[in-house]
């Protein structure tokens, strides 16, 4: 059931902003976060099924079942997208739903689900934007070593070929990986995400094999397109914006270090065909990079048709060598500065407004990230493939969800995106995260990012005020004043 409510008026008045004709407007989800049906129709077990089953790993003991039951309710969700005026839908395909063992026999029932989803989207005038990997590695491949093994990259390419062969007649825009940093660092070093490992050497090997898998999958997709529909292949980074807290040598050095392990470790191989020397030196005691084989970087750095950016907020860091005296102690700490935390890098908050995730809000970071990616990948179309915020939404007595903070967040970031376009960035589209509230990984169902509210007891969908607002922008291409 979907409930529609008219949003309250907003009192903030800014200049009207108009996006270029043909700009892509959409929203995004991920398979494990929305599909549910984790044991239905031959689906295999993923690392997130295993991880979520471990006590203490997920807030509230939540799992991916039933999520938002998108597997069964997708027609309702497509109708909702159409009502919201979305022209595109970015979703992920669950590898274990298509290849339950990660390789070998194809599960026809799994392919059939995505057949129905894609056909339903096209019938509604919504372009499908599938992502091949949004973190749900088949457990059988993890049991064999997961992304620390080169073989997993080969299996990923085989999976890509299967999916392209099934849907390439109707899909133009493909994404290979979503946020390889999350998969490698959060999954293999920090242990906060599946598979829950905590080894730096494993994380470095996983990062490389993820990128190699991207390159091999891109080859497979393009090979399958010979003589057929155009196939445009891209990759999505959650490009971080890391800023020095103070204008000191120590803080600038800390920002450079954090940027290396957060961004350049992933973007330099893809965009420049190399690993950054300072990052290799930093991890020389952890890994000899023996996983890097001759020819790998050429595969990884094959030209992209598009590059996706997932952005939620910037981060500031101070250099421990310079001390943190003079900084309000309540602001020191914050979100860990990724792999840099043990190397003299101290995360510091600015005291800005924060989302329910604790992330500080500063839309100028989106502009900065877009300009940087445009500079580093000239001629490549850019898309904001995720942008949004979690807040503590509640259904009001009038039946609406009056999430003014999220509307303000989206408005500010879209204005930053438009400013990037005005400065020459080839930004071609924007996907709001997320279409609807869902399973938010280690936070379970405790954090709500959707522009559509989901009552997890009844699965009732209610468009939030931010969803109504975004629908108006998507239909007109205009940010109202």
From TrEMBL:
Q: What residues bind substrate, as annotated?
A: 33, 134, 178, 312, 433, 440-441
Q: Which residues form a coiled coil?
A: none
Please provide an example of a Pfam family that matches this protein in its UniProt record. Glyco_hydro_1
| GO molecular function annotation | beta-glucosidase activity
A Gene Ontology term for the protein's cellular component: cytosol
InterPro entries linked to this entry: GH, GH_1_N_CS, Glyco_hydro_1, Glyco_hydro_1_AS, Glyco_hydro_1_beta-glucosidase
Catalytically driven reaction(s) = Hydrolysis of terminal, non-reducing beta-D-glucosyl residues with release of beta-D-glucose
Q: What class of enzyme is it?
A: hydrolase
Keywords (A to Z) from UniProt: Carbohydrate metabolism, Cellulose degradation, Glycosidase, Hydrolase, Polysaccharide degradation
Q: What is its EC number?
A: 3.2.1.21
**Where do the catalytic residues lie?**
179, 386
**One of the GO biological process terms:** cellulose catabolic process
Q: Does the keyword Hydrolase apply?
A: yes
Family statement drawn from the similarity comment of this UniProt entry: Belongs to the glycosyl hydrolase 1 family.
Protein name (record):
Beta-glucosidase
Q: Which organism is it from?
A: Murinocardiopsis flavida
């Amino acid at each position: 059931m979907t409930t529609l409510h008219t949003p309250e008026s907003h009192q903030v008045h800014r200049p009207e902003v108009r996006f270029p004709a043909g700009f892509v407007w959409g929203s995004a989800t991920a398979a494990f976060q929305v599909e549910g049906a984790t044991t239905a129709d031959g689906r295999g077990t993923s690392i997130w099924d295993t991880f979520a089953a471990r006590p203490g790993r997920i807030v509230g003991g939540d799992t991916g079942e039933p999520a938002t039951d998108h597997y069964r309710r997708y027609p309702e969700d497509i109708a909702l997208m159409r009502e919201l005026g979305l022209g595109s839908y970015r979703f992920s395909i669950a590898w274990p739903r298509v290849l339950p063992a990660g390789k070998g026999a194809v599960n026809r029932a799994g392919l059939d689900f995505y057949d129905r989803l894609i056909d339903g989207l096209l019938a509604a005038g919504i372009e499908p934007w599938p992502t091949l990997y949004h973190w749900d590695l088949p457990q059988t491949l993890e049991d064999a070593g997961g992304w620390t093994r080169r073989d997993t990259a080969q299996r990923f390419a085989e999976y890509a070929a299967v999916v392209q062969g099934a849907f390439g007649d109707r899909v133009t825009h493909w994404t290979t990986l979503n946020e390889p940093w999350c998969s490698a660092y959060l999954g293999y070093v920090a242990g906060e995400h599946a598979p829950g490992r905590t080894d730096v050497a494993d994380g470095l090997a996983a990062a490389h094999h993820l990128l190699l898998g991207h390159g091999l999958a891109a080859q497979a997709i393009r090979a399958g397109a010979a003589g057929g529909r155009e196939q445009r292949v891209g990759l999505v980074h959650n490009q971080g914006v890391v800023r020095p807290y103070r204008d000191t040598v120590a803080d600038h050095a800390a920002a450079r270090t954090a940027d290396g392990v957060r961004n350049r470790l992933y973007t330099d191989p893809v965009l420049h065909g190399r690993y950054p020397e300072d990052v290799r030196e930093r991890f020389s005691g952890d890994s000899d990079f023996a996983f890097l084989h001759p020819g790998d970087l050429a595969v990884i750095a094959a030209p992209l048709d598009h590059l996706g950016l997932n952005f939620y907020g910037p981060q500031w860091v101070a250099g421990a060598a310079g001390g943190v005296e003079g900084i309000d102690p309540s602001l020191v700490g914050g979100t860990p500065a990724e792999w840099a935390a043990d190397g003299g890098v101290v995360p510091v908050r600015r005291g800005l407004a924060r989302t329910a995730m604790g992330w500080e809000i500063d839309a100028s970071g989106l502009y900065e990230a877009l300009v940087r990616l445009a500079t580093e990948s000239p001629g490549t179309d850019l898309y904001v493939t995720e942008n949004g915020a979690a807040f503590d939404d509640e259904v009001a007595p009038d039946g609406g969800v009056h999430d003014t903070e999220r509307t303000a967040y989206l408005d500010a970031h879209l204005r930053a995106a438009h400013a990037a376009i005005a400065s020459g960035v080839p930004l071609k589209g924007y996907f709001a995260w997320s279409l609807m509230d869902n399973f938010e990984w280690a936070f379970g169902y405790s954090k709500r990012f959707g522009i559509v509210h989901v009552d997890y007891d009844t699965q009732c969908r209610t468009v939030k005020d931010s969803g109504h607002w975004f629908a108006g922008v998507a239909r007109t291409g205009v940010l109202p004043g």
